[in-house]
Each structure stands twice: as structure tokens, then as C-alpha cells.
Amino acid sequence: GAAGAAGLVIGAAGGAGIASAVSGDDSAPGAGGSPALTSVGATEVAFHGRHQPGITTPLQSRGHLVAFDLAPGAGRKEAAALLRRWSATARTLMAGEAPSGDTGIARDAGPSSLTVTFGFGRTFFDRTGLTARRPTQLDPLPAFSSDAVDPKRSEGDLWVQIGADDALVAFHALRAVQKDAGDAARVRWQMNGFNRSAGATPRPMTARNLMGQVDGTNNPKTTDPDFDRRIFVPADATGAQDWMADGSYAVVRRIRMLLDDWEGLSLEKQERVIGRRKADGAPLSGGSETTPLDLDKRGPDGKLAIPDNAHARISAPEQNGGAAMLRRPFSFHDGIGADGTPDAGLLFVCWQADPLRGFVPVQRKLDRGDALSAFIRHESSGLFAAPGGAAEGEYVGQRLLE
Ligand code: HEM
């Protein structure tokens, strides 16, 4: 993943049990005390900040995406109380502490880079009497011709993204978030995902997806001068978007991969589908993984090195009037589908300051038939407004709900 490491507080674990595990020398392995947490367990991401966690945080190895609908009769007051509870829980768990009445699922583990991120869907605003404050950025995404979207697994009043570098820590947070919902909201859909584990490769490397491709190379970098403008709503946002200052819009798509078909392609054909080499992610126009694509380069046969319909060509910002997004996906695998093929693919999550200058124009182009389209199917869709991060003493969404 190319997402930056903003907001990481490495090793600054908070909970009493954890603090003792990472501090005193007598806790070193073999010294009789409990062994020190590895850096994976001890890594803590800050809950409070300008932006919510889980956007520029490096990809975690486990993820849960959950959408909730407000319960019948629950309105703005109940929603505000829920976001207050959820924020308190997220802050506690992200610091490696146990909430009261804890289930014990994550006992002995550190925060493991846990992040919990909250968003509001289009339908939230009517149910809470806040329609006047719904930004146009939450207008429904256009229908794409290749969509096979299941409405029951799409959209929702509220959305929570959980990520952690440990499966139990992630599940622990998921249970806490579900319990907090209480009578105020019900789970509408839930999806579970994963990425490669920290330490699985000899050095940090860009992730691979279930097609085996290096995926995430050309993501915007936090160090790019236009990163903030592309990914986050401006701090001085006004009008119906004022409460979204420093926030970001998430487009969530469950994209099934037709793996039997994909795996039947020769390596050469697979590489032409994306326009990059499979082994190291280098563009077919030459160089190494990070070499910019040369979209005009032709081979000795006079043909474009990166084919006309290659996914990386069609999705490149220079082909889409500068439209860019931060892709931050998880892979998923839910066994074998009714059709006998793997129910596996990508929980595609992308972040942008405005979906009409990010996901929408790019997906419009891809939908006309890039080379990858024959091997994937978009099965669900969601669009959520994730407000800016909570300041100390504040809860996420307070500027909308108070
Ligand atoms: C690039 C895979 C869906 C937008 C890439 C790359 C791969 C890839 C391997 C090249 C490496 C990189 O720069 O990350 C996939 C797979 C998908 C999928 C397997 C579905 C299962 C999408 C969708 C969108 C999208 C739905 C947006 C509508 C992009 C963008 C780039 C990219 C913007 C970077 C292009 C550039 O600037 O060079 N994708 N992708 N992808 N993809 Fe996808």
C-alpha cells in the first residue's frame, strides 16, 4: 500500500496490561516476565486528529466493513448518542484498552494498528431530519452498465470500517461496535476482508490482490503536493458540506473476481489486461514498479506497449481529467458461490474529496469495457461521507449532530 503512515504512534500502547508488556526490561522474552509485544501488536494509531484514522493508515491485514440502518423510531437524538458511544469505544480500543464489560476477545494483544472509521450514507439524513445538510456529494452514484449490485448488501444509513493487524483485535472491535448499536441501529450488511500480514515479505512491499497483481502502486502519496486537495474536503468547506471539513467520501464496492477465467489466461495476457508486469508491477512500457507509465511508448511491432484497453491506462488520472482517489481495499473470500466458483475478490474502498472527481469518472470509463471488466463483477455498492477526525473531547460527526 502506498498510503502514508500519518497518525501512527508506534509502541505507545495505552492499556495498563499492555504498558507493562512494552516497558520494563524484565518483560523481555526469557526473563521470566511476559514477553514484549512485537511491533505489530504494539503499534497504535491515534484516534483524535484532523482526519479520521483508517484513511491514510497503511493497509491492515484484517478488515470488517459493516453498514447499519437506524432502527424504526430512532432519529437524530439517538444517532448522536450512538456516535458518541462509538467514538468512545473506538478511542478506548485503538489505545489498546479494554472497555467496561469487555468480552476478552483481544486480551493479551496490543492495539495492533486498530482503526475504526465512521461514515454517513445518503439515507441517514432523511431519517434524522437533516436533509438540508446532506451534501450533493452523496447523490446516488450513476448506474453502471456492468453493475450486478445487490441492494441488500449495498448502501446503509451508517458505515463502519474496522482494520487491524490481528484478526482477534479486529473481531473484538466489531463486536464492541455491534453492541454499542443497541436499540438504535441494526446491521444491514457486513463484509470481512484481509490483506497480507505484516512481516510476511522480507521487506515492506506493495500488497497483492487475489489475482496475484501488485495493487496500489500508483496510489496518490501523502507527500504529493495535491494529496490533501484530492482526498480530503477542504478545512474551510461551507454550505451543506460545512460539517465535512477535513472529511472524505468513501466509495465501497464488493467486486467479485472471476478467478477460474482469470487463472486460465497466459501470463502475457494477464499482464496486458493491467498494463503492468505481474512479477514486480513494473509498467509494460519499461522500468521498475515506481517508473511512471509511458502511455505513448510503442514496441518494435508498432503496437502500444500498454494496450489501449489496459486497466492502468484507462484508470490513470491523465486519462480522466485529473480524477484521482486513494484506493484502500481488503481482499475477501466467502467460500464457494452458488455457481460453484470462488466467492472471492476485492472489497474495493476508495477515498476522495468528491466522488464526481474521483470514482465516478474513472468507473464510467472502466465500465465502457477495460480489459479487466471481463474478469470482475461489481456485486454491491455504497457511498458514505466520513467526517473529519474528532478533536479531544469531541465525537465523530458532532459538527453534524449536535
Ligand atoms: C490501478 C487492479 C478496480 C482504479 C490498478 C492496478 C491494478 C489494479 C493491479 C495497477 C497498480 C496500481 O497502480 O495500483 C484492480 C482490480 C480491480 C480494480 C483487481 C477489481 C477487482 C478498480 C476500480 C477503480 C480502479 C473499480 C476505480 C473506479 C484504479 C486506479 C489505478 C488503478 C485509479 C491507478 C492508475 C494509475 O494512476 O496508474 N488497479 N483494480 N480500479 N486502478 Fe484498479
TrEMBL record:
Cofactor(s) listed in the protein's UniProt record: heme b
Subcellular location: Cell envelope
Primary site of residence: other
Catalytic activity: heme b + 2 H(+) = protoporphyrin IX + Fe(2+)
Residues covered by the Dyp-type peroxidase C-terminal domain: 206-390
Region (Disordered): 278-299
InterPro entries listed in its UniProt record: Dimeric_a/b-barrel, Dyp_perox_C, Dyp_perox_N, Dyp_peroxidase, EfeB/EfeN, TAT_signal
Claim: Methyltransferase is one of the keywords in the record: no
Entry's EC annotation: 1.11.1.-
Pfam families hit by this protein: Dyp_perox_C, Dyp_perox_N
Function: Involved in the recovery of exogenous heme iron. Extracts iron from heme while preserving the protoporphyrin ring intact.
Name of the protein in its database record: Deferrochelatase
